[in-house]
Amino acid sequence: MGRFERAADATQGRELSVGSTETILLDRRDGVVTVTLNRPERKNAANGQMWQELLEAFAEVAHERRDRVLVVTGAGGAFCSGADIADPSGVSGDPADPHLVRMRFLGEVMLALHELPKPTIAKIGGIAAGAGLSLALQCDLTVASHSARFSEIFSRRGLSVDGGSSWSLPRLVGLHRAKELAYFADILSAEEAADIGLVNRVVPDAELDTFVYNWADRLAAGPPLALSMTKRLLNNGSLVTMAQALEDEATSQTVNFFTADTAEAMRAFAEKREPRFEGR
Length: 280
What we know:
Elements: E1 7-9, E2 14-20, E3 24-29, E4 32-37, H1 48-63, E5 69-74, H2 99-114, E6 120-124, E7 127-129, H3 131-137, E8 141-145, E9 149-151, H4 165-173, H5 175-184, E10 188-189, H6 190-195, E11 201-203, H7 208-220, H8 224-237, H9 242-257, H10 260-271
Parallel strand pairs: 4-5, 5-6, 6-8, 7-9, 8-11
Antiparallel strand pairs: 1-2, 2-3, 3-4, 9-10
């Protein structure tokens, strides 16, 4: 389990663990893993150490069979204000690294989240800007509180977009809107972000946790193998021809037909009960 260990909750019979590193917190409960960016004094600006720890956490969740859903959020009323440009060690954590090496490391982190073979949800309260917004957009689903704010802040810092935003942003909001957001770096309200498709849902601040973990619990109860293949199919759908998409679907569905989970789903349907998926 790496640096995060599991424990049993004897009072409720629930599996849980809570761990921490220098810059992130990690909590596991019943198949739902929450990674919390934990530099609230910097509005969770991500320094080199945080990027390193995020990469390790994403790899750990990807390979741990009992982890079914990942929630990414921030501590202290912010999601992430971007990369910490005041950190002398840079994105990669090594001040000796050339800038191209640093940026390629950032790319590794974003790609690890984007390709993580399990459903992911960004739980966004407060500011999500720059690389912090890019991080949120690599999640499969995004839920924001009414107080959330969003900005592709890069141009205000004399920078071009990074963290995968050049790929994810136009796919979510369209090319013209993406250029508007990137060129002007305006700050959007949660409602404005929802109106253009940047986030899935906006909920009252007090309901953010309840809503997100309702979604997470539903996903954790779903069929892990089928959801994983669905994620891959949807991520790749705009990159392949219709013929290739159909072939990929056929291959994935053939795999599903031979899993214990699909057999369980068929039994549950016949018996008029909810299925119990085990990921095999």
